[in-house]
Amino acid sequence: MSRVDYYNDPNAPKANSIAVAVSAFIRHDDGRILMIRRTDNGLYSIPGGQLELGETLAQALIREVREETGIECDVIDVIGLYSNPNHVIAYDDGEVRQEFSICFRARYLSGALRESSESTEVLWVSSSELSDLEIHESIKLRLEHALEGKSSVYFT
Prior knowledge:
Blueprint: E1 3-7, E2 17-18, E3 21-27, E4 33-38, E5 44-45, E6 48-50, H1 57-69, E7 72-82, E8 87-91, E9 96-98, E10 101-110, E11 119-125, H2 137-148, E12 154-155
Parallel strand pairs: 2-9, 3-10, 7-12
Antiparallel strand pairs: 1-8, 3-6, 4-5, 4-11, 7-10, 8-9
């Protein structure tokens, strides 16, 4: 399913749903950051996805990272809570979802990078290489907050 992100766009369609999503900021032992290239919009992102019934936020994060990247991780802490009503995601089935995502810092445990049905590319990048990638503004914000390393949680 394809998607279009609208961010602070006065012509964006109105949201008709909201769902809990999680995303993971993961650094390898050498400091590089885990990134994927999404199949639904072609943009680079940190791995993540939707919470499913019957699982905790941590379980959802670990599952999504494994599914999208082949990497096993452990949840460390929360970077931020993102619920900007001016960021909506329109899917080709008619759903228009308001952003509601919890971004976690996670620790790399093991695994080899592999693509999935949700990722056309999976890679480790240095923070200096992030500017070379096409990344949506909402993900850039998460990366910025993660790299700042503040002890307080960001929220909107």
